[in-house]
Amino acid sequence: MHCDCGTNAAGADAAARLAPRAAAQLRAHRLRIHCHAPRRARRRRSKGVVVMVELVVLAVLAFCAFVVFGTLVASASIVGWILVLPFRLLGWLFGGLGLLVGGPILFAGLLVGGIVLGVCALVALAPLVPILLLALVVAWFVRHATRRPAGV
């Protein structure tokens, strides 16, 4: 027997003994592919193929989820940037006003600090002045104290 219908290949005479309606149902049943197809033609998919297809479908769904999530994050970033833009512009405006008002004060402070630093450096180098004067006197003597030939 090939299926649960109870028919087999030798059941051709069984259809002749049945009523016409039952014979029609039996013929329709025999025409179905699962009833009289050889066992080799009814291939079952192996479990590995099913698992592989499931993994491919899962990978495609994961990729789609990443694309959707990335798009949502990018759009949220753009919306956030647009919402924060007026505050950034106000920050730049106040920073420019602060530089405009504080710039001359900053420049004056730097000038005074440079002058004070220069005076402090001269005061710190004051003990070296006698040593420098002594070196200059020695250099002057060496330069002007040249030997002259005698009796020429």
Structural descriptors:
single chain; 152 residues; mainly alpha; elongated
Question: How would you briefly describe this protein structure?
Answer:
The chain has 152 residues and is mainly α. It has helices at residues 12-17, 20-31, 33-36, 47-125, 129-144.
Write the topology of this structure.
Layout: H1 12-17, H2 20-31, H3 33-36, H4 47-125, H5 129-144
Structural commentary:
With 152 residues, the protein is mainly alpha-helical. The chain folds into two domains: 1-43, no CATH class; 44-144. Helix content is 77%, strand content 0%. It is built from five helices and no strands. It has helices spanning 12-17, 20-31, 33-36, 47-125, 129-144. It is elongated, with a radius of gyration of 53 Å. The N and C termini lie far apart (150 Å).
